[in-house]
Amino acid sequence: MYREYKEMVEQTVKEWSCDMEGCGLTVTRNSGCCGTATIMVCDFCGKHCCGKHRTVYYENEWTDDYPKFTACDECSPQADVAYEIAKIVAGRYDSFRDVALEIYNNMEDYEMYIDEIEPSPVLEMLWETDRYDCPLTGFATHNGDLCWFEIDDWDEYDTEYNLYKLTYGQAQTEQSRHAMFQELVGYHCDHVPSVYKNYKKTGREEEFYQARKSWEREDYKENEYLGKFRWDQFKYYKLPRHYDAGDDAES
Ligand SMILES: [Zn+2]
Ligand SMILES: [Zn+2]
Prior knowledge:
Order of helices and strands: HEEEEEEHHEEEEHHEEH
Number of helices: 6
Structural class: alpha+beta
Strand order of the largest sheet: 11-10-9-8-7-12
Shape: elongated
Number of strands: 12
Largest sheet: 6 strands, mixed
Helix content: 25-40%
Mean pLDDT: 87
Low-confidence stretches: 244-251
Bound molecules: zinc ion
């Protein structure tokens, strides 16, 4: 439906301009990738908006390749609220976009949900220390704080992790141990794409495993518990090599 509409518009409109006040960006070719284009149509008011004057909304910003809907700068304050409420009320099989549009247009019916909106924590999976098909244990950040994660429920679609916050001293220790691992063994357990490197023998692995013998196996279950989170709430859930291979087996 959207595609037909887009093609129809592209055949008749030769120029695309951002309708937002004071912008005036005009293009004669309107291309883009992953469901975005230089100029997009606001799903709420139909105005055209450029990348600087819009918000695109993903149902899950770390795992969705295509945004579900777009709001121009004029509509985005209310669209932000509709988006957050849609996350609460949309069932897994509803169209997230339809639910959000319905909420946007009937905001008074959904006011009772406004108090329930909680900002979700920013979770980044930094490196793993054990794996069997998917990460089992390792380290992640929760709103910037270093945490230890351990798999809880292992399910093809709903893998969940328990998160435990590290103390300052524990974080220092784990970071220096990981730096040692990187130097002596490699960067293949790192999830952050700018850090990750493919596995290659260093010849110094034994030095690391000798050093590790004197360490206690990491276990922070007595630490402050931050909650249980689904795999798709983490940025960098997948090892970068899995992106290259187009491997979705972990999802
Ligand atoms: Zn709009
Ligand atoms: Zn603009």
